[in-house]
Amino acid sequence: MNPKSTFILFLVAAALASFVYFYEIAGEDERLEADEAQKRVVVGVEPDDVEAIALTTTDGVAVATRRSDGGWQVVEPLEYPADPFALDAMAAAIAQMAGGTPLEDPQALEVYGLDALEREVRFRAGADERALRIGDSTPLQAKTYVTLIDSDTVFTVSSASVRAFAKSFDDLREKKLIDFDREAVEHIAVNWPDGGVVLQRSDSGEPQWHLVQPVAGPADDETVAKLLSTLVFLRADGFVDDPPSDEVAGLTRPMFSVRLTGSAAGEAVEPFEAVLAIGSHSEDGARLARGAQPGLYRLEVDRIGDLPVSVVAFRDKQVARFVVSDAERIEVLFAAEGSSVSLIAERGEGGWNSQPEAFGAGKIDAMVGALADLRAIDIAAESMGEDELAGVGLVPANVVFKVLGAPSGEAEPPVLALVQLGAPRGSEGVLARRAKDGTVYVIGLDESEYLPISYEAFENHFRADDPPPPPSADAADES
């Protein structure tokens, strides 16, 4: 075979391979999509094309909705924001409902339950206004009869594809009580019947939030973050469009109210304000609330049981915080029977070792982990006098933990944490203080599983069963 013939055969083979790939393989997805589109009940409409939907809900309310730049809106029987997920699901069901092969020689519409006006879904896509009617389930229940109005064609579609239309009026309404961007909130005012707090977002550094009233100081970022998260995801369980008086609803003195202010993140716009008030009266396990929309919301009590309603809840209660891997040395000082016992633990290549007494396996790692993020559960006092501190085991402290990092050059090792523990406070916890802070905190008793709160506790639960071996003669000579 001459080179010219070989080259021509090569070109033919390449062209054939390209045809197989682009038509048979790459084009397969396009053909499948085209086939699926032809099987749809509503041809030529995509979900985003649907601009309005009207139907009768499962509780008998005639509802009309429309899509705008701001999202879906209920326009009948009242003006109200619509639930975007519910309406987007309906738009998708209209556009993507697949009917396969229509029935041959269908009988009268009433035979299939397609004569009921209340089961009609009207919609607009562009300039076209059309209507879809949903009938009965087929004998085997897996499919449902549907038809387009002004058409003699009857389809059977998957029953799952029509479930999006089985909604009550409340299901179609926006249930978000308060609408805001967490990152844009700059100022928070929270009130409850016997108190309240005002918080301001910091420009930089930690903590991110600071208390302004009734006391000034760092706030508990975790509490503030949890509050904002709760408010973002809080949803109504029902609506009261003809609300009672504020006195009857318990809104003259709400059990909880919050006002959030700020501006859109990164945009030069007017500051926003979002307000929510939850009534103090509970009836049938629910409370009434006033939020973003006219009327009132109904809230199940269990949705709001963990809202913070004390100043202490918003106070910064971080007793110690550092990166675990930064800790190189721990000094533990116990006050024991008028004297003191000191233990020193250092991190080496093989892990932690302590002298003169050894901790049990894993105990030092657990202790470092607990100290690295030690949070109090309460604040016992803003400050105490020397006599009071002595009376609660903080002068001298029952236990002192000093955590040091690695030295840098000739500088002293940085102190990562300096924590004092006092006497247990019954079942409430253990009193504690941190370096350069007069505040007396209460840490939970569960921390005693990781922190020896006394020398006796160390002996019983933290000390190794076997004493450490004595130093070798060589080591003694070297020392």
Structural topology:
Layout: H1 3-39, E1 50-56, E2 62-68, E3 71-76, E4 80-81, H2 84-96, E5 120-125, E6 128-137, E7 143-148, E8 154-158, E9 185-192, E10 195-201, E11 209-213, E12 217-218, H3 221-233, E13 238-240, H4 246-249, E14 256-262, E15 272-278, E16 286-290, E17 296-300, H5 311-314, E18 318-321, E19 329-336, E20 339-348, E21 351-355, H6 363-372, E22 373-375, E23 378-381, H7 386-391, E24 399-404, E25 415-424, E26 430-434, E27 440-443, H8 455-462, H9 473-478
Antiparallel strand pairs: 1-2, 1-5, 2-3, 3-4, 5-6, 6-7, 7-8, 9-10, 9-14, 10-11, 11-12, 13-17, 14-15, 15-16, 16-17, 18-22, 19-20, 19-24, 20-21, 23-27, 24-25, 25-26, 26-27
What report would you give on this structure?
Strand 11 (209-213) and strand 12 form a beta hairpin. The chain has helices spanning 3-39, 84-96, 221-233, 246-249, 311-314, 363-372, 386-391, 455-462, 473-478; strands spanning 50-56, 62-68, 71-76, 80-81, 120-125, 128-137, 143-148, 154-158, 185-192, 195-201, 209-213, 217-218, 238-240, 256-262, 272-278, 286-290, 296-300, 318-321, 329-336, 339-348, 351-355, 373-375, 378-381, 399-404, 415-424, 430-434, 440-443. It is 21% helix and 33% strand. Mean pLDDT is 88; it is low at 31-35. It has a nine-stranded antiparallel beta sheet with strand order 12-11-10-9-14-15-16-17-13, with no helix packed on it. It has an eight-stranded antiparallel beta sheet with strand order 4-3-2-1-5-6-7-8, covered by helices on one side. An eight-stranded antiparallel beta sheet has the order 21-20-19-24-25-26-27-23, covered by helices on one side. The chain has four domains: 1-37; 47-172, no CATH class; 182-314, Immunoglobulin-like; 318-462, Sandwich (Immunoglobulin-like), CATH 2.60.40. The chain starts with a helix and ends with a helix. With 479 residues, it is an alpha+beta fold. It is extended and about 100 Å long.
